[in-house]
Amino acid sequence: MEANEITEVLNRPISQELLARDVARLAYVAKDGTPRNVPIAFTWNGSEIVMCTTKNAPKLASLSENPAVALTIDTEVHPPRILLIRGRAELDFVDGIPDEYLRPTSSYEMTAEQRVEWEAEVRSLYHDGMVRIVVTPTWAKLIDFETTLPSAVEELVRRREERQRA
């Protein structure tokens, strides 16, 4: 997929709404060769998906060995809206807590007091730093079931139209 095609998909209004959400599902291949799919908080910075994790997270060894990943960001309403992204994970080991991890999110509402307590807990727990998992999209598809469909369903629609014309 060409960069301009990826940009076009990611700049659609529904894609932008999905990229403003808090949780994606990160799929990767574990060291034992089996698939993994984990929910993880993320931030979209306009060109990359950034996720943060602990330095001892098992997924880091897997991503170091095989950085190919797929992300799903979706809604829980009908019709579903789904943004599928593929890319390569780059691991960025950082001292301290990345800004992306501390950024307030839209779905995890906290009072000011809760926020102070949460941040103190985070700083205490991750005192030796974290890892930023950075994914630059190399492929993207938006499925909204109104203007875009999964490719297999698009094929069925095409076949039905051919049958109806015959």
Pairing-aware structural class of the strands and helices?
alpha+beta
Strand order of the largest sheet: 2-1-5-6-7-4-3
- The chain-level mean pLDDT equals 93
- The helix content is 25-40%
Describe this structure in words.
This protein is of the alpha+beta class. The chain has helices spanning 3-10, 13-19, 58-65, 99-102, 112-125, 151-165, and strands at 23-29, 35-41, 43-44, 49-53, 68-74, 82-94, 130-143. Strands 2-1-5-6-7-4-3 form a seven-stranded antiparallel beta sheet, with helices on both faces.
SSE blueprint:
Elements: H1 3-10, H2 13-19, E1 23-29, E2 35-41, E3 43-44, E4 49-53, H3 58-65, E5 68-74, E6 82-94, H4 99-102, H5 112-125, E7 130-143, H6 151-165
